[in-house]
Every structure is written in C-alpha cells, then in structure tokens.
Amino acid sequence: MDSPPFRASSPLAETDTAPARQRSDGRVRLRVGPACPGGATRILDLAESGPSRLRFPRGSGALETVLVNTAGGVACGDTFAIDLALEPAADLVLTTTAAEKIYRSDGPVSHIANTLTLGAESHLAWLPQETILFDRARVRRRFQADLAEGAALLAVEVVAFGRAARGERIADGLFADSWRIRRNGRLAYADDFLLEGPISDLLARPAVGGGARACATILDVSPGAEARLEEVRTRLAEAASPGTHAAASAWNGHLAVRALGEAVGPLRGVIARFLAGYRGLPMPRVWQS
C-alpha cells in the first residue's frame, strides 16, 4: 500500500492566521539635577528598555544627552516613550543622533509619547533632529510638559513629509501631533496638528501648506520669552533661505515660531541658524555632522 504524500505542517497552516508581529517598545526615563547647590547638572536616575538608549557626550556647559534608536526607525505599531525629570536648577540639552524615520505601515498606528517635568529654575533645550515620514506612515505623537516656577523650556520639532532624495509623495498617511504645556499646574499652551489621507495633496493647498514638504515648530516657554518677539522676527529674517517661510507670535508668557519649507534641508538650516543666534550657543555636535 502506497504511503500518503508527505505534507509539512506549520502553525500558519494549522491556524490559517498570521502570527503576531514583534514590535519595538522603546522607553527611556532620565532624572537629572545639580550635584550640590550651584553645581553642575548630573544624572540622578536612568532607565532604558527596548531599542531606546541615551548617550552623554563630554563637554562643558549644560549636560547634553543624545537619544539613540537602535531599531533604526519607527515601524507600524511601534511605541516609544521618553520621560525626563529635571530637578530644581538643572540644565539639560536633549537631541537625537540622526533623523527619526517613520516607516510605511499596512494599518497599525505607531505612538510616541514625550513627558517632561521641569523643576523650579531648571532649563531644558529640546532639540531633536528632524522626523521623516515615509509614504503610508501612520503615527500619533504626544508632547507633554509640566513646568514649575521659573522653569524654562525651549522645544523644536522639524517634520519632513516624504523622502526628498526620492521625490517621494505621501499618497496616504497619518500624522497627529498633540502638545500640552502646563506652568504651575495650569494649562499654558495647547496645540493639536492632524494630517490624514493624501498628505502631500493636503499640503499643496494654499490654506494648509502652500506646497510645503516640511514644517517646523519652535516653542519657548520661559521667563521673558514673550518680550523677545521683535528680536525673534529679526533673527528669522536674517536666517531665511529661499523656499522657506517663518513667522512668530507671542502671548500668555511664551513665544511660538512656525516655519514651512519646500524641502527639509533648507528649512533645517534656517532652524539651526536661528536657534544658534537665539540661544547664543552652537547647536549640538550631531546637528553639525
């Protein structure tokens, strides 16, 4: 009697369903503060998990930390979270080792949560490099900061819609960005930005982006920020580049800059030149590489 033909078995054949994907879950928690009253800022507590890591280049001035994503980017359904706590009088600069890439998704939405707590008289410069959205990327990002009396936060976010070198357009995607800033427990700044669907076509509309391929937000929530409005407008004009547009406004004790660019390279240059002059300090070294 002949034997029946051999058939290799597999979990997929038995269940007729695809196995669950293994997604990245990157988290870092950092607490910093002066070693003694009036002393230099140092690391008080540090925790890292998943592909997220913090590195601390040596240098003078404020403590600098560089966020590294060893996964190489954010894929569909990934989650990343940063939790920073600055003790009173701490001074910290955060940046990233490279542009963050949000890859194409076949459905699941990735989530990025940034939570900052600034003690009295502390200073945080939040200076990540740009985020690049690929076609069909889907991401929701949340930025939340709580500032105590006299704390100062300077935050910048630059977003490129599509890979410029490939002339990529975003035919479909999701980019949701939510900011909430509180001072002394009270809401001081709230902003929600949402682009969903044919993002490149939406940005081409005059009332949305006027053909922009990149955008940037700079927010200064610090004592005296509102009084620097005219200085900021002058510095933006000096830093301007063809194909970029920027404007500033100030209210409720803080200052905000919005900028658009036909390409991310020139826009990034404008932001870097402006920030160097505004802070009176060079940009982090990774920005200059």
Properties at a glance:
single chain; 289 residues; mainly beta; 10-stranded mixed sheet; 7-stranded mixed sheet; 45% strand; globular; disordered N terminus
Structure, explained:
- With 289 residues, the chain is mostly beta strands.
- It has a domain at 30-210.
- The chain has four helices and 17 strands.
- It has helices at residues 11-15, 199-204, 229-239, 264-279; strands at 25-34, 41-49, 52-55, 63-69, 79-86, 91-96, 100-102, 110-118, 123-126, 131-133, 138-147, 152-161, 173-183, 186-197, 214-221, 244-251, 254-261.
- Helix 3 (229-239) packs across helix 4.
- The protein is globular.
Short description:
The chain is mainly beta and 289 residues long.
How much helix, percentage-wise, in residues? 10-25%
List the helices and strands in order. HEEEEEEEEEEEEEEHEHEEH
Determine the structural class based on helices, strands and strand pairing.
Answer: mainly beta
Approximate shape: globular
Please report the total strand number as a whole number.
17
The proportion of residues in beta strands is 35-45%
Question: Count of DSSP helices?
Answer: 4
The span between the termini is: 73 Å
Specify Rg, calculated over alpha carbons. Answer: 22 Å
Largest pleated sheet? 10 strands, mixed
Q: What oligomeric assembly is this protein in?
A: single chain
> What is the average per-residue confidence, as pLDDT, rounded to a whole number?
92
Low-confidence stretches: 3-19
